[in-house]
Design a protein that fits this description.
alpha+beta; Glutaredoxin; 6-stranded mixed beta sheet; 30% helix
């Protein structure tokens, strides 16, 4: 047994690490409980309009694109909505590498998330550009929406200028009378010079953190064979 060959010093250090891991788990649960106890958020008074195409990204016919309102993103019986704000400026042909990494992961689990609530990705890029990028990434399950002609990003505080988008996740709720509220947003930069606010929503850095070298200064690329 490998465990039998561990030194006393290693076993002691590993037990200390285990205690810290349990404490971190407990703190995450405390943070989640604090989040759930937030009072009702601000009422969203604008029924924002987005552009959307067919779920099948291989369909490139813009005649199939349509307008969809924020209120229409709530499916019957599902009164919670998560919006992934992707950094993707109107003049760009590629989304942000890190946002694309996050979206790759979301695409893999979107069908699980959508079983319980509503989940969409919103980007400022024109819809045809966003869908082309989704095809290149191999996305199959993400619901992609363009806010190209909408003030949605700016109103949510995830846009400095059209060319300077910010990554974040926002949660909205719908009340019985149809009132929509902004429950909360979580940004990558929780405070100044702190850019790991939504790292927890991808397993990549957590996997690196398991190793002796840790995450280091690794950053994602669009593609690793370029």
């Amino acid at each position: 047994m490998i465990r039998d060959r561990q030194s006393t010093a290693y076993r002691q250090a590993r037990d200390e690490l285990l205690a810290a891991e349990v404490a971190l788990k407990d703190q995450r649960e405390e943070v989640a409980a604090l989040r759930r106890r937030l009072p009702p958020g601000a009422i969203v008074e604008v029924d924002y309009v987005f552009r959307e195409g067919p779920a099948d990204l291989s369909i490139e016919d813009e005649d199939t694109f349509r307008d969809v309102r924020l209120s229409e993103l709530f499916a019957p019986g599902k009164d919670e909505l998560i919006v992934d704000h992707m950094m993707f400026a109107p003049g760009s042909e590629r989304g942000c590498p890190m946002c694309s990494l996050w979206a790759d992961g979301y695409d893999a689990v979107a069908h699980h998330v959508n079983d319980r609530l509503n989940f969409v990705l919103v980007a400022r890029a024109p819809l045809e550009v966003l869908r082309a990028w989704g095809r290149r990434r191999g996305w199959r399950r993400l619901r992609l929406l363009s806010s190209f002609e909408s003030p949605f990003n700016a109103d949510l505080g995830v846009e400095i200028t059209p060319e300077r988008q910010l990554p974040a996740l926002s949660v909205f709720t719908r009340e019985a009378d149809g009132t929509i509220r902004h429950f909360a947003s979580t940004e990558a930069s929780l405070i100044e010079r702190h850019h790991r606010g939504i790292d927890l929503f991808t397993p990549v850095w957590s996997l690196f953190d398991l190793t002796p070298r840790g995450r280091g200064d690794w950053m994602p690329k669009h593609f690793y064979d370029e």
